[in-house]
Amino acid sequence: MIRRRLLAALGSVLVLSGCGAVGLSVTPVTVQDFTNELVVPPLAESRVVDGTRIFTLTAKQGRSRFLPGTDTRTWGFDGAHLGPTLRAERGERVAVEVTNALPEPTSVHWHGMHLPARMDGGPHQEIPPGDTWRPEWTVDQPAATLWYHPHPHGVSEEHVYRGLAGMFLIDDDAPVQLPHTYGVDDIPVIVQDKLFDTAGQLELADDGSEPGTLGNVVMANGTVGAYRDVTTERVRLRLLNGSTARTYSLGFTDRRIDLVATDGGLLDAPLSVERVRLAPGERAEIVVALTPGDTTRLRSFPVDLGDVAAPFAMGGNDAFDVLELRAAPELASTPPPSWGPSAHAPNDALDETAVATTRTFELQERTINGQRMDMSRIDEVVTIGHTEMWEVRNALPMPHSFHVHDVQFAIVSIDASPPPPDLAGRKDTVYLEPNRTYRLLMRFDDYPDPATPYMYHCHMLLHEDEGMMGQFVVVLPGMPAAAPAPGVGHGGHHD
Ligand SMILES: [Cu+2]
Questions:
Q1: 463 CA → ligand 1 middle, Å
Q2: Which residues pair with 271 in a beta bridge?
């Protein structure tokens, strides 16, 4: 079935080539007017009880107006589509009361968060319809742009695609000079592509498309053809690739951008770049400078996917605008981004000479090390306190995006070379160019639990659902792993 899919993708290349459409997009992207004001997800309200900051989220069905005159059935947290932005300080105790008002089980994973496996929201922490799940943990990592999304076994693609996703921002008290007023000069931008059927409903059609569904409409925070009025000389955009399959190359035609943070937080220093490549699950914080009266558009350019077969069938040739920025005639002054070395994760916290265990992961069509996901099989047992090197290789000419739960890793090398500067910060997800070896350095400091696994997987969600995922447990020295039994690992408590 998977081979047929790849062949179908290659077949479509030949068909289009035969039509003289060489080099075109596999999914022609609709040209849009940018006349809809960008929706900024509201900050989630919370209450503090006995020192714990408590959020509530309800996953439910709704209807959204993406296309003129058409109501599209969607899913969202609290509203019809996407969810509010959760925000907490490093060191805070947080809890989230997640209610599932959907007609089927789901789960909510805190992507990029360091926390106990029972609170992680993976496939073992499924929430039945009508149930409420209440994970809690202490935020213990540097300031970063994280996110949350469903992770139910076998159907994550559909649940995210229907609209279940939101941001989770971590703050800390490190002195930084960055735009930081939420919704004013510090704006989340969740980039997603959607495919609509003739009735204006979301279509999840991966027939013949190897990476999964590639949409012909792109939206920012659920807004199609979005514009944003800017009132400051610089604006910070927290970019999240919340798509299920598409990899973007985001930037502007008329200016460079400062890349300031990646998945796990700040880089060593601002990095001037033309574009940033984001695979599904990856984030980047960028600072964009504007002049009074300026109008410019955040654009996704044709993306270098590395040595993939038929890159255009993977969306590699597609290009489209995402968000128009309109600067006011007068702008409040904003200093350039800067921070001292104490603001980002200490570079010596991950020490290659301390590596106790090296593991290798080879990604084939839908397998990792020759195996598909099995909920009852623990693939890797990690000893607490150990620094590990994970050597990850994408062995076939297809795109993949590798995500590890619980930790933020450092990319030590790609083949024999150090990573490019835009990949030198802390990461939890990395695009894997085919036939290259990514060496990922990580450390497992706490939360032993021999019976509840964390996941590592491809974040192209069709691939994940079809089995491209494995499980690891973190144990005390000498502690054996226990096979997870059904129902085990339901962290927090259920009402
Ligand atoms: Cu994949």
A1: 5
A2: 259
